């Protein structure tokens, strides 16, 4: 009986140890921000949050950044969001406060390659990112011969990043225009004084394509090194290379190892497809499978459109056997321009799992992407998420919130007026691309279905068009961001919130982002109502006095609902509090039946604040 009890205690202890959250430390390290901790695993020599299929996401974030933060698990679709599982700063209480810890738990029913990164201000651009791997227990049998190869494969991680030594002190230089992302963002916001003109100028144009080479990085890295070298074991015959574009602004041209096959994109199985070269845009992932040889080499070159890339634009990955004595592949001496990033490969890849796919009854929505001089918008309006320097949302124009009905299908036609390419990421959902500027993509059904992704490249220039479709099928409902994943474009307002109708009905605060400040203030003032009221009257009279003096403290110039210019720190003063946003609901369009001109009409029709101006 004693032995039995001993066994029971042992099982209980193991159970307690097993159920402990993985503790990760968010900290400043040398010239960057980092995620580290003993709960992490080394995969191919790279620190990773390694989970097994069916395991919960159960992480305790310890914030040693000395400022607030929040961490998003990119590509994971939690079925609950109510206490901030998605890691997006919609509600102030969801933040991980400075010098405190926060426990985040949710179920995962996905496998593959993901990463976590800060979703607060420019922290991701300073390096706050870490790979996540969810290992399969079984592989789909429909993968054919590759099924066996995956069982006999060693894992490697290749996280691509664009890197500047971040310090508060440095100013921008030729080599590295972004080594102080905060001041770069502040500079950008100063240009916002002419936003209304820019909306008019950029909203209905079709700019020529440009790349992001005006954003200069000191170097581009794989696993934080320009030349990353790791050891292969002789135990497995194959290598599974897990590519993550964890950079903040750069799309990469990948030169795949000889004989490699793409097996997953964004955590979704694809019919194995031979890879010679591929584009990976910001936030995307690709898993490649390749038979081990003396050396596995992969090159990544930063997108270079109008220029010849130099040695700082290239990063190399090498995997070698421990006793290898053969000469190693070195960085190439000369590089050709990569040309523009494109998404052609997406349309050749096919999903493995057979699932019915019919979006013929979907609601079609036009989404125009535009922007200039550091101002970025969706349908002419901007929503800037909070960060350490400004804990509130900043709103310019309307609309920014799109309401979803549970179980309904939606198709967003993204039209890029902008010369920049954008890498659009949807939280909480995966989607398919069904149409490009050239029309419908001739996918076949069944096994030849288009692949699901969570991040898609929208090429820059010439009003490139992509129609993406998804089902509002997140079992937890909720509010999910849809945004450009390029750090500066997001911070310049290229963000839309997708809100399930039934979730926001029960909690309107969730989407009242533009009145966030007043709600917070009211909640805090409630117990001291009388005092609070007096303070407000006092503040208002001070405000009036300042107004009379003609002093301005203008962060941006926005538009109010009448289309007139509204100046101020926030446009919440121009709106009634707690008024739910009614957005897009009155207008529907059917892309296949309407001409481009008609579509443009519909787009402007969505914008009550703009109609009188354009
Ligand atoms: Cu963008």
UniProtKB/TrEMBL annotation:
InterPro entries: Cu-oxidase-like_N, Cu-oxidase_2nd, Cu-oxidase_C, Cu-oxidase_fam, Cu_oxidase_CS, Cu_oxidase_Cu_BS, Cupredoxin. It comes from the Eukaryota. Residues 566-600 are annotated as: Disordered. The chain crosses the membrane at residues 528-546. Residues 48-137, 221-292, 400-500 form the Plastocyanin-like domain. The keyword Signal applies. GO terms for molecular function: copper ion binding; oxidoreductase activity. The keyword Transmembrane helix applies. Residues 566-578 have a biased composition (Basic residues). Residues 1-19 form the signal peptide. Keywords: Copper, Membrane, Metal-binding, Oxidoreductase, Signal, Transmembrane, Transmembrane helix. Belongs to the multicopper oxidase family. This is Plastocyanin-like domain-containing protein. It comes from Guillardia theta.
